[in-house]
Write a structure and sequence with these properties.
690 residues; alpha+beta; Aldehyde Oxidoreductase, domain 4; seven-stranded mixed sheet; five-stranded mixed sheet; 24 strands
Length: 690
């Protein structure tokens, strides 16, 4: 019988829970901390089910050495996949120990309670997890019909808890991968080709004391300090000779419209097609970068055909499989330990830099090798998020209700993470002397939320609708997952058209949405956003605008509604965001609010600032001037209201606010200026074009 979340594929209880003689319980998880606070929430869920305090649990960071494979930390699914697995596993552990306590005390199991890890029967304390521990007690599989605590009996889940990862960060203690220093460590800096498709035709000649690694077009400098490695790499970059090729499109929109694609039906019901459209609009999102403030970094040590690596990858087991293919070895010879790095919410260069370090470490047996990317590497060589076009046609009936909706999406796939394929997508794998072709990005299946088509099916009730995806089969720029995948562009497009249809129907845009919804949770979220923002009594001022956006992430995740207030001067400035969400059960309310705020602020940066700049040879937006992101002084005030539904399944919050925020800003621009902005970013130049 199927078990919850990741427990179904990792059934042995000892894989999740260890009772330590020190009076602690070690909790293992395959999910990783990327700044979203997941380790704190998982700790709360485990402590609740085991009836112990938070201080009695220690979380063990993910490592392939433990064998607890939970695939990828992504998609706002850590609570559903790891949290529910841990809750169920801990309930099984508690049940086993209750059996022990009942047997020792000759008591009925139902008469025994657990308090801070101690088992208390009618005659008093029987023992604790630690005193009742038997060898191999947990070396068995979980079972499906264990009794879990009801929501009303959980005392930790649903209450804010202090983040366990923050104290070290606040007080500057070594915690990040960048802080790791091992005895005998060497430092390396990779010299990248000048453009995609360029090949090394003449390697530099190292000076005395300079160390160089060359493998095909993979070139790196190695030294005993990071500073010296960077200096030597800069010298190598000047003297190396490369071929140059024009492999990038001149015009992104034209590339999207004309490139060969595979067309697939995403959703269809009712009649297809219509002779009269009230709205026909095309929406554009350019390539965008992860633009993590912290740079990608890895440490690798290679000895006796064994590779040990430290990485901030979100998918260490799949990365291990790709490394094995490139290095021509077995996964059994590779161990990867997760360490925290800068959060990226998607696939940045965290996986790529591990291969960089591994290739160099092979030349220095037994020596740990540290590689850190440069800002230019980060912005020009890390996987990007695919550019997208979304074309929508919609019409109204005589009563002002939507009766036809047609949507066409054009994009590359949005998933190119390590996958254990014969053709790994790691950057350096395409540069070595026996290179691998970087695979064309995949799309997650529709059942899992989709990729470019994510959130492409409106939640609104429309009798006739068809949605198609045109997945491009040419990938001039390497693209993969970025927070929300295609949801941001699709929600921006859908919610812009909803506003435009409301205007044609001469209806309030929020009321227009409500009459097209029957989902009570969706309505409640919209009404909550209206309530906290005083939208009904808002004051209109010159140069200011109000806008609204709504979506249910993936069509099956958290509900989110955003109302934005902007000011328009030389540029658009987001001044205030009011956000209402319903994500079902909330484990750590403070952590959930952090996630929603962070997603909305990042969405403001995407919407107002970000666009990868390139010519036919290379990406040239390689610093914060050419690839600007939102600055601290531009961050809006954000107010979040959470609708608690503790008896309902948790839905995840990490990505739900992005699409609605972008849409709310676009609709606020129209409210302020009377202009329908259809191209991201919402820069002065694009507004002027509109």
């Amino acid at each position: 019988m199927k078990l919850p979340g990741s427990l179904d594929s990792n059934r042995r209880l000892s894989s999740w829970v260890e009772v330590m003689p020190t009076g602690l319980i070690h909790l293992h998880t395959g999910k990783v901390e990327i700044g979203q606070g997941i380790l704190t929430a998982l700790r709360q869920m485990a402590a609740d089910e085991l009836c112990i305090s938070l201080e009695q649990i220690e979380i063990i960071s993910a490592t392939t050495a433990e064998g607890l494979d939970e695939a990828v930390t992504s998609g706002s699914r850590s609570i559903q996949e790891s949290g529910l697995a841990i809750r169920h596993a801990c309930a099984c552990v508690r049940s086993l120990y209750l059996d022990q306590a009942a047997s020792l005390s000759n008591s009925l199991k139902k008469t025994i309670s657990v308090d801070s890890g101690e088992f208390v029967g009618p005659q008093g304390i029987i023992g604790s997890y630690w005193s009742l521990c038997k060898p191999n007690l947990l070396d068995r599989e979980a079972w499906p019909d264990v009794e879990l605590k009801t929501a009303s009996l959980r005392t930790l889940s649903g209450e804010s808890a202090n983040r366990i990862d923050l104290p070290d960060k606040v007080f500057g203690k070594p915690r990040f991968i960048h802080d790791l220093r091992l005895p005998g460590m060497r430092f390396a800096s990779v010299v990248r080709p000048p453009s995609p498709g360029a090949a090394l035709v003449k390697a530099p000649i190292p000076r005395i004391g300079e160390e160089m690694i060359v493998d095909g077009s993979f070139l790196a400098a190695v030294a005993d300090t990071e500073f010296k490695a960077n200096q030597v790499a800069a010298s190598f970059s000047e003297s190396a000779r490369w071929t140059a090729q024009e492999t990038l499109p001149k015009n992104t929109k034209q590339f999207l419209r004309t490139t060969t694609s595979v067309r697939s039906l995403i959703h269809e019901h009712g009649e297809v097609g219509n002779s009269h459209w009230n709205v026909e609009a095309e929406f554009f999102r350019p390539y965008v970068a992860h633009a993590s403030i912290g740079l990608c970094c890895a440490v690798a040590r290679y000895e006796n055909n064994q590779l040990e690596a430290w990485s901030h990858s979100q998918s260490i087991f799949r990365l291990r499989a790709d490394l094995a293919v490139v290095l021509g070895t077995s996964v059994d010879n590779i161990t990867i330990h997760h360490m925290e790095g800068a959060g990226c919410y998607g696939q940045n260069g965290a996986d790529d830099v591990v291969l960089d370090a591994a290739l160099i470490a092979r030349a220095y047996p037994g020596k740990p090798v540290r590689v850190q990317w440069s800002r230019g590497d980060e912005l020009t060589w890390g996987p990007l998020s695919s550019a997208m076009l979304v074309n929508i046609k919609a019409s109204l009936d005589d009563n002002g209700r939507i009766n036809f909706w047609s949507q066409e999406i054009i994009s590359n796939g949005h998933e190119n993470r390590p996958n254990g394929d014969k053709n790994p997508g790691l950057l350096a794998a395409s540069h070595i002397s026996n290179p691998f072709d970087i695979p064309i990005s995949r799309n997650p299946p529709v059942a899992a939320g989709g990729g470019a088509d994510r959130n492409s099916v409106p939640l609104y009730e429309i009798p006739n609708i068809d949605v198609h995806l045109n997945r491009l089969m040419d990938m001039p720029l390497r693209v993969s997952s970025l927070r929300g995948l295609g949801a941001m562009a699709n929600v921006f497009a859908i919610e812009s058209v909803m506003d435009e249809l409301a205007e044609i129907a001469k209806q309030d845009p929020i009321e227009f949405r409500l009459i097209h919804l029957s989902d009570s949770r969706a309505k409640a979220v919209i009404q909550k956003a209206v309530e906290i923002s005083n939208y009904r009594t808002r004051k209109m001022q010159d140069g200011c605008g109000w806008g609204f956006g709504f979506a249910r992430y993936k069509g099956l995740g958290a509900y989110c509604a955003v109302i934005a207030r902007i000011e328009v001067g030389i540029n658009v400035v987001a001044k205030k965001l009011w956000i209402a969400t319903d994500c079902g059960e909330i484990i750590n309310p403070d952590g959930a609010v952090n996630q929603i705020e962070g997603g909305a602020i990042q969405a403001c940066s995407f919407a107002l600032k970000e666009s990868v700049q390139f010519n036919t040879q290379k990406v040239f937006s390689d610093n914060w001037d050419s690839y600007p992101i939102l600055r601290f002084e531009e961050v809006p005030n954000v107010e979040v209201a959470m609708i608690k539904n503790q008896d309902l399944p948790a839905l995840g919050v990490g990505e739900c606010s992005l699409g609605p925020t972008v849409a709310a800003l676009a609709n606020a621009i129209h409210n302020a200026l009377g202009v329908r902005i259809r191209d991201m970013p919402f820069s002065a130049e694009n507004i002027a074009k509109a």
